[in-house]
Automatic annotation (TrEMBL):
Biological or metabolic pathway of the protein: Amino-acid biosynthesis; L-asparagine biosynthesis; L-asparagine from L-aspartate (L-Gln route): step 1/1
Enzyme Commission numbers on file: 6.3.5.4
Limits of the Asparagine synthetase domain: 74-432
Protein family (similarity comment): Belongs to the asparagine synthetase family.
One Pfam family of this chain: Asn_synthase
GO biological process terms, semicolon-separated: asparagine biosynthetic process
Cellular component terms per the entry's GO annotation: cytosol
Record-given protein name: asparagine synthase (glutamine-hydrolyzing)
Site location (Important for beta-aspartyl-AMP intermediate formation): E212
Amino acid sequence: MANSLYTPAIRLDALPILLQPRMATAGHTPLTGILEVEPARTITFSREGLIAKRYWQLESAPHPDDYDTTVARVRELMHDIVARQIVADVPCAAMLSGGIDSTAVAALAIRKMSAAGSTTKLKTFCVSFDSDHSSFIATDLRPEVDSPYALEVATWLGTDHNDINVGAEQIERVLLDCCRSRDLPGFGQFDASMFLMCQHIAKHGKIALSGEAADEIFGGYPLFHDKELLAHNNFPWLRNGPRLTDYLVPELKELIRPTELEQDTYAQLLAEVPRLPGENRKDARIREALYLNMQGPLAVILDRKDRISMANGLEVRVPFCDHRLVEYMWNVPWSMKCQTGVKGILKDAIKPYVPDVVRHRRKSAYPGMHNRAFEKNFYNQALAAVEHQQSPFYGMFDAAKIRALVSRMQQDKTWVNASHLLIPLVEASRWLRTYQVNFS
């Protein structure tokens, strides 16, 4: 978009993708005339034009190993992957939330460093908020604060641990930086806290390990275990809940038909799923859900991680995305994946290297800040996005319905969860104004 020959524009029928980024298919952006190189592909320009070639894809096949062999293979792979990824000519750090995924990566990194004769402690980093002690409210999505677990794990592992405690003013200050680092609408405060964490880590080193992608590979998200959600003929994470497009004015909604786009995208991705002949219906549906999550949420999470970290001069490596591990776990039957509980194979594979408290800890999403002043400002921004005449979205949304939605959310003590619906509206408005994108 920095090219003076390009005028940033977005088609109205791409509005649903702008408001629900996890629904975008690989290679496509909401911007008119701009595509991205799809994952696992190369592109070649020549006089004949552009040629895209795929060099890797998942393949479904019967899993040949029993449970113990599978656990041993995962352990072997994780040892080798982490050992390869900490090789660098600068010190390597690790993000540590105190959950099973980041703890596994940090623990294996320490073992490799020790085996190589290093006496340097691994630096670990966790993000927390100055309002955690006074305002945190437990929810199903975020039942606990990360920082106490991260500290307990760091003490057990013997790392040089750093708790990066941030507040609302710091979050507000970097929201525009996050927008510019991603070049597309982001996730508001969740991007901002990651930006601040990467900024801090970069002062101590230029490479960090992350536990991202383990939930997609090992089936850790609650939706994989929810029969009702899996039975829903749509993206499992969307459920039957409200969409931002529900609040568009009727004539615009009729013009762009967001429900049809959602169903078409869902059908397109389902058609891509590598099938296993003879697989029972339950396992086949789980395979679909795993694939959908890799193509949607995981793709967005990894892009977010790459752009935000590199904007701060930090390279974040993701061991769980090693193609050997992804390929192996893709064909492990769901009954085996869950034989000893959620992400049981991973927990059993790294059992010798982590404290029991981590193996038994309940899944908690990336942390969110509970701050009433920040919340009030956020809702004001959401209302401004639909009510102010200077807003790019002016006239597109039913302002009265958005105001009623905000009123209901303000009465919800778990507003951090509820705000997920409005974050794309606020951030898309910021992005449209920052990059001067017009609707075409």
